[in-house]
Every structure is written in C-alpha cells, then in structure tokens.
Amino acid sequence: MPHINIKMYPGKPEEAKQSLADKIMVLAQEELGCPMEALSVSIQEVAPESWNEAVADVIPGDAVVAGEMWRVK
To answer: Side-chain half-sphere of 7: how many Cα atoms within 13 Å?
Structure first.
C-alpha cells in the first residue's frame, strides 16, 4: 500500500518514465509516511485512439483528485 498507476500516451523515453516513477515514490513516501518498500508505481501506455474508452470513461470523476480528466476530442 499504496500502488500508484500512471496512464499515459506512448512515446516517452524509458529514462523519463523511470525518473517520474522514482520521484513519485519519494513524494508518496514523504506525504504518506509509509515505508518505501510498501510503495509501487506502474506505468501503462494507452494509445490516443483508445484513451477515452480505456481511461476517461472508466475512472469516475470523483476519483480524480488533481487536475481534470483528459478526453480525446
């Protein structure tokens, strides 16, 4: 606990994804006060043409705690 799942478009370099995950791990540990070994981060790449169906239509609006859910127009 907790597990943080990041969904994003494909195409970012592996180094950028690893850096993002590492920074989120540190921030989560600081903010939540849980041990680092209790944290995990995953990154799922979702193609733009699948975004609404796989992400925007699945995650309830009240689960989004920062920003707004991006929808492909």
So the answer is: 16
1.10.8.100, 3.40.640.10, 3.40.50.20, 3.30.429.10: which CATH number matches 3-63? 3.30.429.10
| DSSP class of 58 | T
Q: Is the pTM of this model over 0.90?
A: no
Measuring CA to CA, which residue among 15, 35, 17 is closest to residue 26?
A: 35
Say what percent of the chain tops pLDDT 70. Answer: 100
Distance CA 61, CA 57 (A): 9
What gap in Å lies between CA 69 and CA 15, rounded to an integer?
Answer: 25
pLDDT in tens, 42-65: 999 999 999 999 999 999 999 999
